[in-house]
Specification:
By secondary structure, the protein is α/β, with parallel strands linked by helices. The chain is built from 16 helices and 22 strands.
Length: 506
């Protein structure tokens, strides 16, 4: 009997493959980064072929290191950066262009034109999303308009669209030799093209964007035994393994954090921050700048929905300190540098590199650093960077409480930035509630494994998964209410300085 479940975690900066046992414990992993392609200001791209090669490599390396084979895996799940858009040729398997990453802002005029044409309300009502550069539909429209040959091939059914889950599933299950062209509702709900209630592509939305339905993948439940197909015997697994679960990365983290009850919330700290609140089987429409999204759909059960606060730049702001400014040599150094000062020295950093996402949705915004004086040092900037992660989360928590009426009593956190203990203490201070990190902090991969394992009976129910969850560390707030509110008021002033920087008509 197979003892383990595997998970492919294809993220914004890297791809990893992880193996888990029945207790949800990590058995093995391997991870590789891929190139961040920045052709011009506001453009962010990935090479889909490189991502597929990295995926193959991390699977093979993990299994080799752990001395495992396909027969040891009951199932495999896939989780992915969600809105990143790939278009490739069905016959050749070659992408027409680089993938347009979720952070990319080149579609700001498309989003603004949709709003001006009066389509915004329709998109919000049906898809649960505002017209914004973040989502896949505008990126796909841009490719159809700007990449030679795609529009003609799309009309003939030769050009295929997918987010990176679809791209990987297609390759894992055969590629040009009958690869499955599929996605799940969590990824489809990030396109501006799917109706939240029917869980199907909506003809009115497709018409608004001018997108041929033939290029879109079929939408199947996030957890199911066989609908995604099996891996090829000559693929990276060197054997057949059921692909039984697919979840967008933030929904996967919600499952990994076992937030299965309405009112339970988690915050994932990665390239960006993503806070999801389970709203059950009810579609809750946000009035405070949040997104309505599908949290998961297991088998033939009704879909479960969530409110989401998406923040574009958090962990990538720390990466910016390393790669663009060169004031730290690694992400972990941001903690030691920031710890050299007791406070931010009056410095506030709003990293609106891709505009502002939730709850503002301002694609005209750009990053600012304010409050600089001769007293300011690189340590103050490092601390302001960590604080920006936490202030942006507070913005989203405030919107979520206003929409749902639910007051947080604890925030469950996961993702790479949670290793920064100073940042997590700042987060507890700025929210005024405890912050709790689980033993398995990389819950995105775990959630994908759970979805796959549930489908094949490796885990019998979500009750078993809840028993696996264990707290690793908790941070209690130490900052006084007056200091908390004073700092937040200054943060809001800093946010105002980012607005109206880009003229969307240019």
């Amino acid at each position: 009997m197979s003892q383990f479940v595997g998970a492919i975690d294809q993220g914004t900066t890297s791809t990893r493959f992880m193996v888990f046992d029945h207790g949800g414990n990590e058995i093995a992993r391997h991870q590789l980064e891929h190139e961040q392609i920045l052709p011009q200001a506001g453009w962010v791209e990935h090479n889909p072929t490189e991502i597929w090669e990295r995926t193959r490599a991390v699977i093979e390396t993990t299994l080799t290191k752990a001395k495992l084979s396909a027969a040891d895996l009951a199932a495999v799940g896939v989780t992915n950066q969600r809105e990143t858009t790939v278009v490739w040729n069905r016959r050749t398997g070659r992408p027409y262009c680089n993938a347009i990453v979720w952070q990319d802002t080149r579609t700001d005029k498309i989003a603004a034109d949709l709003e001006r044409a009066g389509h915004g309300d329709t998109i919000r009502r049906k898809a649960g999303l505002p017209p914004a550069t973040y989502f896949s539909g505008g990126k796909l429209r841009w490719i159809l308009d700007n990449v030679p040959g795609v529009a003609e091939d799309a009309e003939r059914g030769e050009a295929l669209f997918g987010t990176t889950d679809t791209w990987l599933i297609w390759n894992l299950t055969g590629g040009i030799d009958g690869g499955a062209h599929l996605t799940d509702p969590t990824n489809a709900s990030r396109t501006m093209l799917m109706d939240l209630e029917t869980l199907d592509w909506d003809q009115e939305l497709l018409s608004i964007f001018g997108i041929p339905r033939a290029m879109l993948p079929d939408i199947v439940p996030s957890s199911n035994p066989g609908l995604f197909g099996t891996t090829l015997a000559n693929g990276p697994f060197h054997g057949e393994v059921p692909l039984a679960g697919v979840l967008g990365d933030q929904q996967a983290a919600t499952v990994g954090q076992v937030c299965f009850r309405p009112g339970e919330a988690k915050n994932t700290y990665g390239t960006g921050n993503f806070l999801l609140l389970n709203t059950g089987e009810e579609v809750v429409r946000s009035k405070h700048g949040l997104l309505t999204t599908v949290a998961y759909q297991f088998g033939d059960q009704k879909p479960v929905y969530a409110l989401e606060g998406s923040i574009a730049v958090t962990g990538s702001a720390v990466q910016w300190l390393r790669d663009q400014l060169g004031i730290i040599s690694g992400a972990s150094q941001s903690e030691s540098l920031a710890a050299q000062v007791q406070d931010n020295g009056g410095v506030y950093f709003v990293p609106a590199f891709s505009g502002l996402f939730a709850p503002y949705w301002r694609s005209d915004a750009r990053g600012v650093i304010v409050g600089l004086s001769r007293y300011s040092t690189n340590a103050h900037l490092a601390r302001a960077t960590l604080e920006s992660v936490c202030y942006q989360t507070r913005d989203v928590v405030a919107a979520m409480q206003a929409d749902s009426g639910v007051e947080l009593d604890v925030l469950r956190v996961d993702g790479g930035v949670t290793a920064n203990e100073l940042c997590m203490q700042i987060q507890a201070d700025f929210l005024g509630v405890p912050v709790s990190r689980p033993v398995v902090a990389e819950t995105t991969a775990l959630g994908a494994a759970y979805a796959a394992g549930l489908a094949v009976g490796f885990w019998r129910s979500t009750d078993e998964l809840e028993q696996n969850w264990q707290e690793d560390k908790r941070w209690e707030p130490t900052l006084g209410e007056q200091d908390r509110e004073r700092g937040y008021a200054r943060w809001k002033k800093a946010v105002e300085r980012t607005l109206d920087w880009i003229d969307l008509d240019e």
